Amino acid sequence: MVHTPARLYLMRHGEVSNPERVYYGQSDVPLSDAGRQQSLAAAQNLQGIDVSFILSSDLSRCRFMAEAIGRQIGVTPVCSERLREVDFGQWTGLSWEQIEQRYPGMFQRRMEDLEGFRPPGGESLHDLCDRVVPEIEGALAGREGENVVVVAHGGVNRVFIASVLQIPLSNVFSLDQGLACTNVLDMFPDGVAVLRALNLPWYMEKGRLADYAVV
């Protein structure tokens, strides 16, 4: 039997204010002025698409975009802390140089074991995947033939796409996620996922995202 998929628009937040270039993870850092403009432009790209449900990370850098989308289509976003970025634990708020100074060799260990390594007090990518995938799949359940928007973070998006496409988590950084980008996936009820578009930029020609909208 052929089933109609749910079409997922998986989006990333815009640029944040991070002058110290630190790992902010689950910290609720604000969007920069440019990030707000990117988010609004990305939201406008969804004009003309009949979206039935919006799920967002509860952090403000994602909520801003989700609420902008909701205002233009008349749908109130549902926010979830389970879609927060990976928890860097004691590395949160530190730069790469500071991590190297305080935890010698540990950053290299993380890069050698992206799936399983946990920073002190933090999460591995496997941990992130375990909380993210069920949350997004739950939002898609029973929405065959509908368009669903999820607004989240670079790490969240990467592990979700990798998981549903059966790409090893060790390869997640091969999946580029630009600021305020959009990914389009068809999610079938039997668990099959088809990637229609990856890392579409916020500055797309207006109306072009609707090319991916028909389900």
- Total count of strands: 6
Strand order across the largest sheet: 3-2-4-1-5-6
Which superfamily, in CATH terms, is the homologous superfamily?
A: Phosphoglycerate mutase-like
**Separation of termini?**
17 Å
- Estimate nothing, just give the exact number of structural domains: 1
What is the CATH architecture assignment?
3-Layer(aba) Sandwich
- Beta percentage is 15-25%
Walk me through the topology:
Blueprint: E1 6-12, H1 33-44, E2 51-57, H2 60-73, E3 78-80, H3 96-102, H4 106-112, H5 125-140, E4 147-152, H6 154-164, E5 182-187, E6 193-200
Parallel strand pairs: 1-4, 2-3, 2-4
Antiparallel strand pairs: 1-5, 5-6
Helix pairs in contact: 1-2, 5-6
Sum up the structure in keywords.
alpha/beta, 215 residues, 31% helix, globular, six-stranded mixed sheet, Rossmann fold
Summarize the model shown:
Helices cover 31% and strands 17% of the residues. It has 215 residues and is α/β, with parallel strands linked by helices. The two termini are 17 Å apart.
Explain the overall architecture.
- With 215 residues, the protein is of the alpha/beta class.
- 31% of the residues lie in helices and 17% in strands.
- α1 packs parallel to α2 and α5 (125-140) packs across α6 (154-164).
- It starts with 5 loop residues before the first strand and ends in a 15-residue tail after the last strand.
